[in-house]
Write a structure and sequence with these properties.
The complex is a heterotrimer. Chain A is of the alpha/beta class. Chain A contains ten helices and ten strands. Chain A has a six-stranded mixed beta sheet with strand order 6-7-8-3-9-10, sandwiched between helices. In chain A, strands 2-1-4-5 form a four-stranded antiparallel beta sheet, with no helix packed on it. The longest helix of chain A has 18 residues, at about 175-190. Chain B is mainly alpha-helical. Chain B is about 85% helix and about 0% strand. Chain B contains nine helices and no strands. The longest helix of chain B is centred in the middle third of the chain and has 39 residues, at about 85-125. The termini of chain B are far apart. The chains are: A alpha/beta, B mainly alpha, C alpha/beta. The interface of B and C includes residues 47, 51, 155, 161 and 184 of B.
Chain lengths: ~270, ~260, ~160
Amino acid sequence: MSEILVDIKNMTFKRNERVIYDGISLSIPKGKITAIMGPSGIGKTTLLRLIGGQIKPESGQILFDGHDIPQLSRNDLYEVRKRMSMLFQSGALFTDMSVYDNIAFPIREHTELSEDIIEKMVLMKLEAVGLRGARGLRPSELSGGMARRAALARSIALDPELILYDEPFAGQDPISMGVIVRLIQDLGQALGLTSVVVSHDVPEVMSIADYIYIIAEQKIIGQGTPEEIYRQTSPLVQQFVKGESDGPVPFHFPAAPYREELIGRGSK
Amino acid sequence: MQQLQILGHTIIGQISGLGRALLMLLSALFHMPNPRKGFPLLLNQLYSVGVLSLVIILVSGLFIGMVLALQGYTILVGYGAEASLGPMVALSLLRELGPVVSALLFAGRAGSALTAEIGLMKATEQLSSLEMMAVDPLRRVVAPRFWAGFISLPLLAAIFSAVGILGAHLVGVDWLGVDSGTFWSVMQAQVSFEKDILNGIIKSVVFAFVVTWIAVYKGYACEPTSEGISRATTSTVVQSSLLVLGLDFVLTALMFAN
Amino acid sequence: MSKKIELLVGLFAAIGIAALLMLALKVADSGISGNGNTYQLYAKFDNIGGLKVRSPIKVGGVVVGRVSDISLDSEDYTPVVTLDIYAEYNNFSEATSVSILTAGLLGEQYIGLLPGFIDVSVETLKPGDFIEDTKPALILEELIGQFLFSQGSGD
């Protein structure tokens, strides 16, 4: 395997007593697309926030190019964040500015470049996501897919090393899904980006990922290249890949047995 | 036993909330954005916090001044003391109504908007996304709003009082026939700059601080759901109004009691 | 858009400052100007009535200063009033008399100065001097009492 950019070692994270991750370890190779899959509600987004340093784990290390994210001081953390960016599920475009200004925003914040150069950079990024014509629109005037592409243009505005995609395919129609799949692939190759894609859309992820981790029940239950994943015999992995409704990953949120609850109520 | 525990839990929750609010305030105050980037932000916020509150302040100031003149005149004329209409109106406006009513209006007009805006930015992950872009949301979003409120409210209170006095002049002099010269000169003889005007300004500075702080913190700390935002907005208006009135008593007692 | 915002914010600040100026200059006139240079004179009264600190001191209706302090003389327990007189009125003669007057029947009380004649033989009052010729405040209740008393004795 090639060089590692993000290395998570034996990391445990709890949210109000509820264990989300129980001592997981995973590594994300440089310049590749790594997918993190799993059923909804197991905290895949939380993992991205952990990598971004927005929340801190209970224990364990999260190394980004050798820096242990949870241990960094505020200033160092902000320095490290300049090298990564995140595509939020909602896009999280700033609603009070135009698409153009949204994409110019990180450039204006972090550099002292003149407006001429900024304009060239912004148009280049917009061209890359096919939205050069929409530069004057407000985020509220964009469709969901366009908003996500605009947000993608914003997250690559400063040519980060690592880009974290939070559910990039969720709630997209097939065409814009195809567009985003192509964009993630092309950007990864053209810019040498390291991508982390968090998703539960199996076919799309299988088509672009170089390496896949499947997380369920606080642990990594399977990993490998897409082919290896398909071949894995673990019932958990098979249930997820094939999309069966019940199996080792239960359909029900943990609760007292239904019968007991009903009878318990009735006797009162 | 359980009640005690609930009480303890509530108190600890309140205190830690206060601590978080204080930390937020300090970092917003001391992480000023650099002037070149910060000034346009401040300008935008001065517009939405100050300029947009101007109309409501002008209109209500005018009407309150007019009502004060009308009410005051009917009382004072009974004692043949309608010459004191000017100082009566001016002192009520400068000491009390100007700072307090403009702070209440400000809480309703600008405070609620601040909370809702920041809360919505949080709910739509805009604050998170700022953080991930290595831009401190406290510096970028909270600080300019805070300073804008802090600058705007004292100005609004001054405008409120001035317009109110003009409104009283309108009713008292032009309508009820108090002599214009008497109106102004008796007012001037009675109103002291330090004691009345300066203290009024100090009051409105304190109120500005309280209202914007509450508004900004409620938005920043709200639960990022539509219900959470609506609750935060309501509690901004309620809490800042109550705090303004309570603090007004304390400040009045400190300033004018001797 | 940004131009418009700048313009409106500028307008807002201008209105705000204009309002402050109006309050400072038109509503409270004496505040700033009255804090110029002053000098002190003292006067003892038998009774100061409702005189207060900051009450005006007038000569023929023109304000020439303000009362800055009211206290009791430590020896004979008569009220001593400290008068802050604006520095430009520095030529009162020693023959000046001072009385406590009332504006209207129920109005505020103030101090009226009646400047005495100026003559070579009469010196002018210097800062810190006492004005000798003082007339106490008229107390309405005493007046009424006297009036009733004289009515009664007249019968």
